[in-house]
Write a structure and sequence with these properties.
The protein folds into 4 domains: 162 residues, GAF domain (Beta-Lactamase); 101 residues, PAS domain (Beta-Lactamase, 2-Layer Sandwich), CATH 3.30.450; 79 residues, Helix Hairpins; 150 residues, Heat Shock Protein 90, CATH 3.30.565.10. 48% of the residues lie in helices and 26% in strands. Helix 1 packs antiparallel against helix 2.
Length: 529
């Protein structure tokens, strides 16, 4: 009677295990839940004292302990040894549970149950028990094999589920992204299907046609309140593209009122799958803005041509004036009348000022036309900074202004056009000295910045810039309205040119200033990697 009861109990346990496997493991898509269920299932058929669940990462040849129960220090060391000695991988190659006799305190047996899917290792279950190896007779080992097979199927299902979920999330994100793109486009977008049902009607189209998308979406275009002349035009284009003309581009005047017509550019393209016609995509462009822009570009081109011509015509006589003035200055003797020297100095200074103005105008014209040439080479920033200080030293000395180099990070090699960066340094140093009172100071700070750039900071304790005028300093022909600035002269082109030069190198130029305390003009240029 006892034997029959034991057999019945064992039979019931096995049936319960298979039921749990069929019901629970196959229905869950949560990794933690699957692991917990599997350990609970095993507890019904294996009298274990400690157990761990490991997953295997093939790309890194690494095992991760997802869960362990009743592990002491000895068992942890044993588990580490099993991994390091490659015993788990060896057991996986056997393709079945491996029983190992142990002597770890009271633990006598360790069983390694590899988790294989299509002969690829996914992980392992490590079972420790106080019972000897005879406890693991063939039936128990077969049950372990069945459980491991079902577990690997569950994990594969989980991976498939995650992949599908990830793909669905990507599709949702892409749809949301495309919806946002279509909504925010500056052109109007209409999509009609093959039954003339409006499927897309973006915000710009609402503005152009003066009708809300809620009134037309998912409706046949002929049954909407859109003006009939526009519907006829769209229908004509729809007919053309449906007959094989894949792209249509034409203009159309949309009547807003009797006295006000809006010129439209309509571009249409066919939507099809293989040879099946699905509908049409229509892009609406407000031609008023385009025509105005074309006229502005024409005027801008005339302006550039004019500036280029004037600059060329002025450069020739200025060269002669400057040459004669310098010659006369050399010829003047010590006992000549002082006023003659003064007048000649004025001629020389003014010719230099006009020459700078013309050079600035030409540089800006070249930059805007994309014709300014750059020769990028490796340079040591320390040398460039010291050279720029040496070049400007005379001007600083006249105003008794101290030039203080502060090179925090030395011997940095940069990739630049040295002549252009010297032009930037000269302009920034000249401005700093110009707008700093006598006996002031100008500091040149050099240090590494983020993302492989070096930052150069021209810091002065001069007049500073008012907060509401800071942005103006980088606009063409604009300067601060402060009287001290205006009296210092200048074309208003130097800083815009500097910003363009720095941005060409991939850096940026900006200013930080407090009115009455001074300014810091900072720019970054790339370091050689």
């Amino acid at each position: 009677m006892d034997i029959k009861s034991d057999l019945k109990q064992a039979y019931d346990d096995v049936i319960s295990v298979f039921y749990d496997i069929a019901q629970d493991l196959t229905s869950s898509f949560d990794e933690k839940e699957i692991i917990d269920l599997s350990l609970n299932v095993l507890k019904k058929v294996i009298d274990y004292d400690a157990i761990s669940f490991l997953t295997y990462i093939p790309s890194r040849d690494m095992y991760i302990v997802q869960k362990s129960i009743d592990y002491n220090q000895l068992l942890k060391k044993n588990l580490l040894k099993l991994v390091k000695d490659g015993i788990i991988t060896w057991a996986a190659n056997l393709g079945r549970p491996f029983v190992n006799v142990e002597d770890i305190g009271e633990i006598k047996t360790t069983v390694i149950v590899p988790l294989l899917y299509k002969e690829v290792l996914q992980g392992a279950i490590i079972i420790h028990t106080k019972k000897d190896e005879n406890y693991f007779e063939q039936n128990r080992l077969k049950i372990l094999t069945i459980v491991s097979n079902q577990l690997t199927i569950s994990f594969e299902n989980l991976n498939l589920y995650k992949n599908v979920e990830k793909r669905n999330n990507k599709l949702k994100a892409m749809k949301s992204y495309l919806d946002n793109v279509i909504t925010s486009m500056t052109n109007g977008i209409i999509v009609l299907d093959n039954k003339n049902i409006i499927r897309v009607f973006n915000k710009k189209t609402e503005e152009l046609l003066g009708i809300s998308h809620k009134e037309v979406i998912n409706k046949n275009i002929d049954s909407t309140e859109i003006k009939s002349d526009f519907i006829r035009e769209i229908s004509n284009i729809q007919s053309k593209i449906s007959k094989g003309n894949e792209i249509i581009d034409q203009e159309f005047e949309y009547e807003i009122t009797k006295d006000d017509k809006m010129p439209f550019g309509i571009s249409a393209t066919i939507l099809k799958k293989e040879n099946e016609y699905l509908g049409g995509l229509f892009v609406l462009r407000d031609m008023r803005e385009t025509k105005e822009l074309m006229e502005l570009k024409r005027i801008d081109k005339l302006k550039d041509e004019f500036l280029s011509m004037v600059s060329h015509e002025l450069r020739t006589p200025l060269t002669s004036i400057k040459a004669y003035a310098e010659t006369l200055l050399d010829m003047v003797e010590e006992n000549d009348v002082e006023s003659e020297r003064e007048f000649l100095n004025i001629i020389n200074e003014e010719s230099e000022r006009l020459s700078r103005l013309i050079n600035d105008v030409l540089d800006l014209s070249k930059i805007e036309a994309g014709k300014m040439s750059f020769l990028i080479q490796e340079e040591e920033i320390d040398i460039l900074v010291n050279k720029s200080i040496k070049n400007i030293y005379g001007f600083a000395n006249e105003k008794k202004i101290s030039l203080i180099p502060n090179i925090i990070d030395k011997n940095i090699i940069v990739l630049i056009d040295s002549d252009r960066i010297l032009q930037v340094l000269a302009n920034l140093l000249n401005n700093a000295i110009k707008f700093t009172c006598e006996e002031g100071k100008v500091e040149i700070i050099v240090k590494k910045s983020i993302d492989n750039f070096v930052e150069i900071n021209i810091k002065d304790n001069g007049v500073g810039i008012k907060e509401d005028e800071i942005e103006n300093v980088f606009e063409k022909f604009k300067q601060s309205e402060d009287i001290l600035v205006r009296e210092s002269g200048g074309t208003g082109l130097g800083l815009p040119i500097c910003r363009n030069i720095v941005e060409y190198h991939g850096g940026k130029l900006w200013v930080e200033s407090k009115y009455g305390e001074g300014s810091e003009f900072k720019f970054t240029i790339p370091i050689k990697i």
